[in-house]
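I am writing to request your help with a piece of structural work I have in hand. I set the record out below, with my sincere thanks for your time.
___
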Amino acid sequence: MTATAAWGATAPTSGMAPLSIDRRELRDEDVAIDIAYCGVCHSDLHSARNDWGRTRYPFVPGHEIVGTVRAVGKGVTKFAPGDRVAIGTVVDSCRKCDACEDGEENYCREGMVGTYNGKDRIDGSTTYGGYSASIVVAEPFVLRLPESLDMAAAAPLLCAGITTYSPLKNWNVGPGTKVGVIGLGGLGHMGVKFAKALGAEVTMITTSPAKGADARKLGADHVLVSTDMAAMKAATRSFDFLLDTIPVPHDIAPYLLLLDRQGTLCIVGMIDMMPTFHSGLLLGNQRAVAGSGVGGIAQTQEMLDFCAERQVLPEIELIRMDEINHAFERMEKADVKYRFVIDMGTLA
């Protein structure tokens, strides 16, 4: 084991503070990575505070990781020291079930191993995330970071990016598709950028008229204010696909009315109980409500390559490691445009 500097939580109310963690010695298939930047995700905050009741302490968040290869195990063939790489939300899976064989390790039937708060499949140890100086990950779960992507800006692609890219691709969003993105935050702003880059006609759906100008700068063709009942009525049956990025409980019924025949509303932001709705909203026009998590390794690499080709990148605010507690507070107030990224060179 190698002692590694990190920041993490020791209890639900402890806040984030410096601590030391152990990183394993290289196995044959392992890649050791020096972390340059790590994005800050809402899941980091929820997990640090044990909002979902599953956190094991000490806890180190961070699953939007970019950095440089420091060393590789003797069985590694795809990476070498000095390579630019990235790690997302998954660091292992069973690798043999139908989901894994289909390149959807994130839906592994035995359960994927999360980058943090997961359980290592070999030694049973708890996994620690990217709020740390370095990380060791098996080669099949390491992603190549294209040279043309800015390292800091690329970090949120590893969760916020793939969380929005995956459903847009899986529901065949492209030219001729009318897409509504509900909510303009860390996920929503990437939903707008990706849907536009994929060729769709994009509408930003928001409760705040003030966000309209930002939405258009990000690429939205239209803005629909959901509190404007006349505008919502006029938009009835206007959309083929709705990407719902709202992170708190909300009524989806008004949005279902916006879907055209056989349209789909896909939830990516909310992880909790949702209010009920009348089933007639689905039956009448064969509408569907779906959900989507992150993508598998192959699709995440596809997304990174797509972003490099089109220069699709998140809007970020770079922070120091010792600013993370304040960043969590600001994130809860939606006081960021649109994603925090930690400069791990400031790790103390």
Summary: The chain has two domains: 2-159+314-346, 161-291. The mean pLDDT is 95. The longest strand covers residues 30-39. The two ends are 20 Å apart (CA to CA).
